Amino acid sequence: MDLKSNHASPVLTDPAPINKLRLGIPSGLLALLPHSQPGALFSSSKYVTIPRKKTGMINDVRSNGWLDAMKSSSPPRKKLIKDFNVEAALDDADIASCSWVLKYPSALSSFEKIIDRAKNKKIAIFLDYDGTLSPIVDDPDRALMSNEMRSAVRNVSKYFPTAIISGRSRDKVYELVGLKELCYAGSHGMDIMGTLSHSHVSNDHSNCIKPNEKQGKDVSLFQPAREFLPLIDEVFRTLVENTKGIKGAKVENHKFCASVHYRNVDEMNWPTIAQCVHDILKDYPRLRLTHGRKVLEIRPVIDWNKGKAVEFLLESLGLSNRNDVLPIYIGDDRTDEDAFKVLREGNRGYGILVSAVPKETNAFYSLKNPDEVMKFLNSLVTWKHDQTKSVIHRRSIE
Ligand SMILES: [Mg+2]
Fold this sequence. Notes:
Elements: H1 20-23, H2 27-30, H3 66-72, H4 77-83, H5 93-103, H6 111-118, E1 122-127, H7 147-159, E2 162-165, H8 170-177, E3 183-186, E4 191-194, E5 220-222, H9 229-243, E6 250-253, E7 258-261, H10 270-281, E8 287-292, E9 295-300, H11 306-316, E10 325-331, H12 337-344, E11 350-354, E12 365-367, H13 370-397
Parallel strand pairs: 1-2, 1-10, 2-3, 10-11, 11-12
Antiparallel strand pairs: 3-4, 4-5, 6-7, 7-9, 8-9
Helix pairs in contact: 7-13, 9-10, 11-12
This protein binds magnesium ion.
């Protein structure tokens, strides 16, 4: 399967969320935005229209919380203890950690409980990439998954529908994972490709399109933010140009979003990089800022995220609105919280947060690091394999 994009494809768009924090714009301007309709997830709809020339409407980075958000993208242990209201000495982080694990138990120690619920159900697996399948490293280009992890993901996909949902471009995450048998959702779910069944998708998804012959006849493409491609490309080039003087800054084009990594930027220069991105974004009211782990991400103002991508994939795989399906989503980032929330609502499935430190989350369970993710995936494979074997054995003696 060739996962290169087809740039001539139509797209489905959705209204923007009315959320001043997500938009990063002041409340006065919000009044100009159309409201998101309940149930509008899969409806054909209009783009958000925001007047372009409204200078001075976005506050300085120091007053609008950008810097605070940048600092909290990797919160110190002291802060975490305070957040969780744990009555512990400040140097007694272990107690805080234990308390957190009680609230979000390890998916490994809770494995029996998870598979107990999965009995007679079809499990669907959704996996983030960075920090989940690969370690977090200073250079995003070197965030490689191990062969053992690749083999674990391959084995999981033999038994369960499996999708990777990443903030990276779809082409890049496919290149890093390299498994043809999976669905891939790049750019936080705004660029989905996989063997999606059109028959299961509602009429409003009619602009799910078929890529060209080279990409495989069974493969479909869904790009809800396609119209934004030129805009993202333009802002990417401006970001590269304007941040080139900031040592350690790295700008990436994820096709439907652009990201500015400040992991390697001296903390003294964080205000400079924040101001730079802020100043550029002022000229792009149809784009918004989100905060990842030591990364500022610029995305289209549309009501689409990893949670919507999970719902879309479940629908297109014929797995939505069914009691016999258990979706499991594993991720480590703030952007994964949208997916955790979707699964938590209505008790549909399990979100598993990958984190070595306590964090507030919508997930049900936790895993400490990618090694534990691999153990969990291998446990699922072993369980399913044994289950399948015992069913075959039972049938043979009947
Ligand atoms: Mg991640």
